[in-house]
Amino acid sequence: MIFATTLRFSLLGAAMSAALGLSACSKPADTTTTTDDSSTTAQKPAKTLAITQIVEHPSLDDMRRGIIDELADNGYVEGQNLKVNFQSAQGNTATAGQIAKQFVGDNPDAIVAISTPSAQSIVSATTTIPIIYTAVSDPLGAKLITADGKPFQSNLTGLSSQLPLEPQLDLLQKIKPDLKTIGYVYSPGEANSVSLRDALKKALPARGLSLLDIPANRPTDIGMATRSLQGRADIIYTSFDNNVASAFEAMAQAANELKLPIVASDEFSVQRGATAALGVNDYDFGRTTGKMVYRILNGEAVNTVKPEVMNELTLYVSPKHAKTQGVVLSDELLKNAINVDEKVKIASK
């Protein structure tokens, strides 16, 4: 398979701290509108938006930034006619439930749930407030949509980040041609991670490959779980697991010591230590989600905004991290990918 810098795939259907005193990142705003005639904020009524995510890490944070920027470009500007209440569950599902209850009590105009655990908590808490999920890789497995792509609740819509598996496996075998065993560190409490594990187990035998799956319940377990792959796996694959993402440096450090290349699914993971990733651009993902949020804030009924799937994939590579992890990337991969090392050099000048 030839990778292009941006790979497009047509995906089937639309399938796809620890206490109430947690610190909120809400930014208060008055409801006055701008007097700048060039801005559309003067024509938009004041709205309130609640946003939550299971944990803070660069990938999810960039999605959130994309949402806010998209709304601002369409006339809903935080601090002017948009009040945003953001709260992170700090990786704790019990806290996610508390946040959901608090949001329902606040009764905002809409709630954005970033990540599968946050979406599940919000959906369990309200059937009336509009909910937009995002960064959910398996909305069907998470019981957010039905098999025919319809939301389980009339107040629900969102954007899926499910990636086609076969191109991911192609990439793994291009990076490690003698690949036999894939190491997979995952959170057993995250439905998206469990469904990916099951999909890998089903797909790998046809390629003569096997999966070594290692559960890690907390971010603090990621380093030890990764080290347990020593001598047992040839490469590490990770995708949209929030525990892994929040402790990615620990995984990268262990992988460097073991000379095991990491293949992920987002650009930030490559910046933070992975050899490569084939996935969506997180900021663009947020911008696309923001378009859905805008439609709802602008008066459309949530049940008329159909769930969507992000279907634009980009290949990111780091020759520097690849070398540290014991592999050399082929010229074919390098010429058809975004070299994160070069982006970092430019940004540091």
Can you describe what's shown?
It is a single chain. The chain is an alpha/beta fold. The protein contains 13 helices and 14 strands. It has helices at 58-73, 93-106, 116-125, 165-175, 191-203, 222-227, 242-246, 248-258, 267-271, 282-297, 319-324, 331-335, 340-348; strands at residues 6-8, 47-53, 82-88, 110-114, 131-136, 156-160, 181-186, 210-215, 235-237, 262-264, 276-279, 308-309, 312-317, 338-339. Strands 1, 7, 8, 9, 10, 11, 13 and 14 form an eight-stranded mixed β-sheet that branches. A six-stranded parallel β-sheet has the order 3-2-4-5-6-12, sandwiched between helices. α3 links the parallel β4 (110-114) and β5. It is globular and about 60 Å long.
